Amino acid sequence: MSEFTLPVGPVHPAFKEPIQFKFKIEGEKIKSVDIDMGYNHRGIERAGMKRNPVQIIYLSERICGICSFSHPFSFSRAVENAVGIEVPERAHYIRTIIAELERLHSHLLWAGVAAHEIGFDTVLYLVWKNREKVMDICESITGNRVHYGVMMIGGVRRDLTEEHCQKLSKAMEYYNETLTAIEDVFLNEKTIKMRTQGIGILSKKDALALSAVGPTVRASGVPKDVRVDQPYAAYADMDVKPIVPEKANGDIFDRVWCRLVEVRQSIQIIDFCLQNIPKGDTLAEKNIVKLLADLSQAEGEGIGRHEAPRGECTHYVVLNKQPNPFTWKARAPTYNNVLPWVPMFKDAEIADIPIISASIDPCIACADRVTIVENNKTKTLNKIDLHKKSIEKSKRLKKCQ
Amino acid sequence: MQALKRAIWVFHLNTGGCNGCDIEILAALTPRYDLERFGIKLVGSPRHADVLLITGPVTRKMEERLKRVYAQTPDPKMVVVVGNCGSSKGVFHHHYNVVGPVDKFVPVDVYVPGCPPRPEAIIYGVAKAWIKLEKLKEEKK
Q1: The CATH classification of domain B2-140, taken from the options 3.40.50.12280, 3.30.300.90, 3.10.20.30, 3.40.50.720
Q2: Which of A195, A299, B64, B124 has the highest CB neighbour count under 10 A?
Q3: Residue among B14, B21, B97 minimizing CB distance to A43
């Protein structure tokens, strides 16, 4: 059978990083994949070197709208590490609470998108309806729904009031109840099992060799979690365990399972933080002018790591007695999870492209256009056709049962 | 034009933004805000769209794609820019790989400011574009 080349992308309307896949296919089977990146490159690191650290916090939130707390968190930790700023205990707890709220909303967002990719739109609306609750909480605590703007070098800019704590614990009760329904759908529904079990397999060996991070690597049976390996903030005070399935196959179902259990874990962490949050300051240095003056005299390098919803997020900073950092390097988790796509796509079907590419959580909501090129004849499949193909597969599998 | 009386279809294009506006657009479609009750629907191809929702500051590689998507959208069309960085490049102002803002390449009808704007603001922006489309239709008569 002749081989086709099948480019997907790069206009993926709700993609975090507009990406182009070039699939080599034989019939319905994918033989290999080539990934073309760089459509979303904005040169943020370079621009950051021309701004001062407090301005970079604002900029680093804009690296990604979904990890909008993870990047400033890692960056502040890197600067604090370089200069040796002691963060107040209360600020540690507030940071942890917001980081876990972000994990909650990100995983719920992903669950909805994944359900949409296999043609299960009812679940998309069910999950996104529940997700609005955590957005409300984020808004009442930080003032914003997406870019929170609470992070500051040496602490946080807003304190938690008694009212916030009550709202938070009520929201956690709400999630403890409503999550049962979502878990029931994802773990027991036949359609989801058929479309996710044994598909997009990433073996433990490949996961380690390609240095995958986050739920992608944990679903392959590697207990890798920065919150456990190098505890920081309030995670050091509690007993966090990496979520690894007992019998890890490394397929999409395991990744779904990992994320759902992590949502439960986040609720437990937030509950622990609310019970044990100490009183005191929330910022090491309240005067920003003095903070900037101190930082412009500082010298040294620092690394900040944080377990973002998608995996480890690392920032590296070099300060060189200048107002601006000498070097700033950010490594987002999706960057590590791009290469593991290659073994996942191998021998998969075309209808599985949407769910496999969504399974590492790169924020893909729609693949816009697929073009099949055969002997210079071009046949274009758009996102709707691809989605239709995916729905057809679900129906076909149901009939076979 | 007759179809506009009933519903408008929207195509959403990310030209290299941070995804913040994109998730707010999706949130506007889901049960809390429920854009679809007005007949506003997100479609997968620019060829089916009446309104283009554009986010992001336009990176060098996406410039060509933006122009192509605009050309593929049938007339009459409206362009709504969502977010600060699409309107004025915002925080990405002096970045070397950012060539925007959007109105440098395609004519823009409605700007929705905010980083990111709330779903209500996005719905308001799309409704404004809808009114403009209807007015266009009246003038043609």
Answers
A1: 3.40.50.12280
A2: A195
A3: B97
